[in-house]
Structure formats: structure tokens, C-alpha cells
Amino acid sequence: MDQWIIASEFAEVAVSLDTDANGPRLRVEDLRGGRVRYLDALELESVVWLSDERARELLDPSAGRWSDRPADD
After folding, report:
1. What's the rounded Cα separation, in Å, for the pair 67 and 70?
2. Each residue's pLDDT tens digit in the chain (73 positions)?
3. pLDDT for position 65
4. Conformation bin of residue 30: beta by default, left when phi > 0, alpha when psi is -120 to 50
5. Residue of 13, 21, 30 whose CA lies nearest to 71
6. 16 near 2, Cβ under 8 Å?
7. What is the 3-state secondary structure (H, E, C) of 19-65?
8. Backbone angles phi, psi at 33, to 5 degrees
9. Contact assessment for residue 31 and residue 16, using Cβ atoms and an 8 Å cutoff
10. How far apart are CA 57 and CA 46, in angstroms?
11. 10 Å Cβ neighbour count for 1?
């Protein structure tokens, strides 16, 4: 399984293709926190079609990761 590390001063993730489920999906692992998320083709396409405003709102780390509220599992 090929794995790519994508990092910046704010985050470090490992990205790979998972084929163990019903169809291929992207596996994204937060290397600092250990959380893993799987994204299928429909979820990835939905991200592409988000407006810039909605994407900023959803991807804002202060809305979950860096807040005092527990993260949704």
C-alpha cells in the first residue's frame, strides 16, 4: 500500500488508498493525534463542489480540534 505524507507547520497526515471495503476509498490519518477518516468517491466529490465559504466553515480546525468541545466520533 502506497502512503503519502502531507505536512505543514500546522498538521501532518498520511494519505493512502484503502481497498478493504466494498469499494476503494481514501484513508486519511492525523499523524499527530492518531485519528483516521475514510472518504469514498461521493464524499470526495462533495468536498470538491463545496463553495469556498462552506469549505472554510467545515475545515476550520478551531471548530473542533482546537476547541474545548469534544470531537464528534
Report:
1. 8
2. 799 999 999 899 999 999 998 899 999 999 999 999 999 999 999 999 999 999 988 888 777 666 555 555 5
3. 67
4. beta
5. 30
6. yes
7. CCCCCCEEEEEECCCCCEEEECHHHHHHHHHCCHHHHHHHHCHHHCC
8. -110, -15
9. no
10. 14
11. 8
Q: Rounded to 5 degrees, what are φ and ψ at 21?
A: -90, -160
Q: What is the pLDDT of residue 8?
A: 93
pLDDT for position 6: 97
Amino acid at 43: E
Q: Which residue has the cell 464528534?
A: 72
The residue whose grid cell reads 503519502 is: 4
Residue with cell 471495503: 21
In angstroms, the first-to-last Cα distance of the chain is 26
